[in-house]
Amino acid sequence: MNTRNIFRMCNKLIIPSIQSRSYGYKVIKRPDPKTLKMPSPESAPSLMEIIKEKIRLNGPITVAEYMHIVITNPTEGYYMKKEVIGEAGDFITSPEISQLFGEILGIWFYAETQKMGPGKPLNIVELGPGKGTLMVDILRVLNRLGYQSNDVSLHLVEVSSTMQNVQATRLCISHRATDIESPHNYEGETISGIKVYWYNDLKKVPYEFSWYIAHEFFDVLPIHKFQKKEDGWKEILIDIDETGKLYYRISAKETQSVKVLLRPPLDSGDRTELEVSPRSLGIARQLAQRVDQYGGIALIADYGHEGEKGDTFRAFHKHKVVDPLENPGASDLTADVDFQQLRIAASKAPSDDNFALVVGPVQQKDFLERSQARIRLQVLMDNAKSEEEREKIKDAYEMLVDPQKMGERFKFMAFYPSSMAPILEKQPPLGFSTLKT
Length: 437
What we know:
Elements (H helix, E strand, L loop, with lengths): L2 H12 L32 H12 L2 E2 H10 L21 H4 L1 H15 L8 E6 L5 H12 L7 E6 L3 H11 L2 E4 L8 E4 L5 E5 L10 E6 L8 E6 L2 E9 L5 E5 L5 H6 L11 E4 L1 H17 L1 E10 L8 E4 L2 E3 L9 E3 L2 E2 H8 L9 E8 H7 L2 H10 L4 H15 L8 E8 L3 H6 L11
Parallel strand pairs: 2-3, 2-7, 3-6, 7-12, 12-16
Antiparallel strand pairs: 1-9, 4-5, 5-6, 8-9, 8-11, 9-10, 12-18, 13-14, 13-15, 17-18
Helix pairs in contact: 5-6, 9-10, 12-13
């Protein structure tokens, strides 16, 4: 049988079986992102319900997952629905205690920048700007130092729309939301004409010469908690008991986080408890690369340690320590910053092209006093209008430097461009005793 006949037979078999098909299409209009709104608080499930449902569906969750939900949930997240800083909130920060704190930081940045050059134009980038108080105090210093509105722009990294509004109200004479295609989601101008931009991610901030400030920022980033058992490292997870209450449990097997995160030098030594924040390490690395490649300085100020602690996860409510697993969303979740890990993330490693010179950490009392804070204190006291005001200024300063209060618990660390090594050898960093490499 030739090929033509074979095709003729196949056509006779196939053609009758071909049927006409009709399709019905429903036109679906893609929602406009500009018109999308978050559900109202009344209709949104509670954080406890969200967490418990996640555990029921997927099993125990990591502490990092728990922190991420509690901190960033769009409607019920801790920073999303209320102003939490200050005497009426759950904690208070150094800039809220005394204007001197922010002024000293402004002077420090300016003095260190003079070792590099004029430092204009200047981007000031703050991660987690709180109520905007620190930035207000720094801008006051820059105004006295002769910076004009076209010399400076502010770039604030903030994920909470609630805190963003607090900052905008404090800093700006006018402010507005931007188009969804814009890298920044909000913008404004100060009364002197300085442009202010808000971002939800450091990666979106322009890559230019900048001062980077991270004050009490790293302590709220999610951590993984680990414990060393006889058969190796295990991860601490969060589960639900028979009564419906959240509790900690040890993973039966080695989790993926153990495999990925616990590598030398993080797991070195005889430590049996360890906390690791992948986001902290990633952001420290970003800061190091930005500073080294595009110029500038990064200053980190937070409470923390140098690798000697292992169990620091806790919660604060109304300035008191409470159980982190009770009433999620009502308390500030935090963990001490491991400055040793930040150093490892930012310092040079094999094949690195961009890395930072890391100095510190030093205790807050040492940093402030080496930066001549007592001279500024005396000026403020001399200009006080009453003895009562003088005492308040003095008490606020003592709160910052007293070893039993914030003086030793809070620490400072700075990142410089690697090319600054010869300069810093001759002119050691202000506020830091010696250069550590």
